[in-house]
Write a structure and sequence with these properties.
disordered N terminus; alpha+beta; elongated
């Protein structure tokens, strides 16, 4: 049996939960499946098996059959056969290429919780013989006898195949383990039924023994961790899944050291009629950003065709916080530095410092490359006008020519770089930037074409976009802004910048097949907990 499927699922826990939530949504038997859209405040009971020092744990808090049934209910009749096939492939995939069948062998006893965890960085804590992480899978059972029969059949098949089985009784719990073939590689698999509620699988009997110890010594387990309790308590939305990570330990699992101030993070996954809603809570001391319930009017100058945009308030404070975090700074520095080079500016120093009101930054695609548009409220900082005037002076000092042109009735300032390599024959002028004032906003673009698109967009802008409204609808209205991706248009652009996305699409194919947009929002930092949300809109 390819039992590595279970262990790989643990290693990619967040992806597994997203996959489950994407390809199935519900239940139509004892009660209305639409009740799942509300979720519940349930917390993973299997956290009692997991150590406080575990790098990461993820739990699905609803039976997969309930998700499948709601998915069938909300799907178009023409799509139901395809969605049923997707879900069957997922459930059977957990069992690998074995003789076991999900509906026959697992469905009769599987309860409402599936918890997977990376429990330790090294099972034997001896680096001399290499590191082997510990993996644990806890399945809630609603029928203890049927689950015991399942394990009996599982190990009988292994014994017939030549596996030497070991039977052990540890603190009243019977364990079975042995070497099984997984993709032609022998791996250790250990199992146990704990009490009348859980079936446990692990990649070592030591992992199972530690899990049992964690239950009996409550001070050792994650359920009684103050960080875990604080992070979970901050997730107040109904949920069908939860992920919790000890960030320093998770970084070590990937062979790195975390340098930021964050200690732990929790993610909850809930269902919406149009997709998946995630809430995040990160334990991190930081700046408490001003939040707003008002629409970001700067989006009135971002054309609706923009596939990628970021908007909010207090860009100066936001950038200060992002630049101090080692993880996020790596992601945001690259595009900001690239844009700064096009304008010959240090954007954080020359522009971000005076953006204390609303802002919007967006990408506008075109055939050969992409243009940027940046909109900023210049009335929130008394020094903004002087800072904008200084930009023109900085351009002149770097050999950039500054001039004024008209686009319709709107005067615009154009930054031009002259190329006189063959001055006797030709002088080429390259437009490197354009900016203009409309009301209280200063608008910057990287080309005349982009500025022309902005000025002629009229009402066809993100602020009036139905797609954008749907993309932010499930998120909390009191926030510091949005990062928005229209996936269909943004996909080729992002794949060029981040090739790893192509790999991600191979792993999570159904997610990307149904993905329409992704929106992320920051709800602010209060009492050392940084809260946020994300909405994955699906077809």
């Amino acid at each position: 049996m390819k039992f590595r499927s279970f262990l790989n699922a643990v290693a990619a826990i967040a992806g597994v939960l997203l996959l489950v939530a994407t390809i199935g949504f519900g239940w139509i038997f004892a009660q209305s499946p639409r009740s799942l859209l509300k979720g519940s405040p349930t917390t993973p009971t299997a956290a009692m098996f997991v150590s406080k020092q575990a790098p990461v744990m993820a739990s699905l808090l609803v039976n997969p059959d309930r998700l499948e049934s709601l998915r069938q209910l909300v799907a178009k009749p023409s799509d139901r056969a395809a969605t049923r096939k997707e879900f069957e492939q997922f459930k059977q995939g957990l069992l690998g290429d074995s003789e076991l069948d999900y509906r026959r062998d697992v469905q009769p006893w599987l309860g409402d919780e599936i918890t997977a965890a990376v429990t330790t960085l090294d099972i034997d804590r001896d680096e001399a013989n290499g590191k082997e992480a510990g993996y644990l899978l806890a399945l809630e059972t609603k029928d203890t006898e049927r689950s015991r029969e399942f394990l009996q059949v599982f190990w009988q098949k292994r014994a017939i195949a030549g596996t030497d089985l070991v039977f052990d009784d540890y603190k009243g719990t019977k364990m079975i383990y042995g070497k099984v073939e997984a993709e032609s590689v022998p791996i250790t698999v250990a199992s146990a039924v704990v009490g009348r509620q859980y079936v446990l699988f692990a990649n070592s009997p030591k992992v199972l023994r530690n899990a049992i110890n964690n239950v009996q010594a409550a001070e050792l387990n994650l359920e009684n961790s103050s960080d875990y309790q604080q992070a979970i308590a901050a997730l107040d939305r109904g949920r069908v899944g939860v992920v919790f990570a000890n960030l320093p330990q998770l970084a070590k699992l990937n062979g790195k050291e975390i340098t930021g101030t964050a200690s732990s993070a929790a993610i909850s996954l809930g269902l919406d009629r149009r997709g998946i809603v995630a809430e995040t809570a990160i334990l991190q001391e930081g700046t408490e950003f001003d939040q707003t319930k008002s629409p970001i009017n700067a989006l009135k100058y971002i054309p609706a065709i923009a596939p990628i945009s970021a908007s909010g308030t207090n860009l100066d404070r936001l950038w200060s916080g992002l630049s101090k975090d080692a993880v996020t700074s790596k992601w945001v520095n690259s595009p900001i530095e690239s844009l700064g080079k096009r304008w010959n500016l240090n954007l954080p120093q020359d522009i971000f410092n005076w953006v204390k009101g609303e802002y919007a930054l967006a990408l506008i695609p075109k055939s050969d490359t992409s243009d940027w548009v940046f909109v900023a409220d210049k009335t929130a900082d008394p020094g903004a006008e002087a800072a904008i005037a200084r930009l023109d002076e900085l351009g002149k000092a770097q050999g950039i020519t500054t001039g004024t042109l008209q686009i319709g009735d709107q005067p615009v300032t154009v930054w031009t770089r002259l190329d006189s390599a063959d001055a006797a024959k030709k002088i080429d002028a390259e437009v490197v930037g354009v900016h203009t004032t409309i009301g209280k906003y200063e608008i910057f673009t990287t080309s005349m074409t982009a500025m022309n698109t902005v000025l002629k967009a009229d009402k066809n802008v993100l602020a009036n976009s139905k797609a954008f409204d749907q993309a932010i609808a499930p998120l909390e209205k009191e926030n510091t802004g949005y990062l928005y991706l229209d996936w269909e248009t943004a996909q080729p652009i992002l794949e060029e910048q981040f090739p790893v996305l192509k790999v991600a699409q191979l792993v999570g194919g159904p997610i990307f097949e149904h993905l329409r947009s992704l929106t992320i929002s920051n709800y602010g930092n209060q009492a050392g907990v940084q809260r946020g949300g994300a909405f994955v809109r699906l077809s």
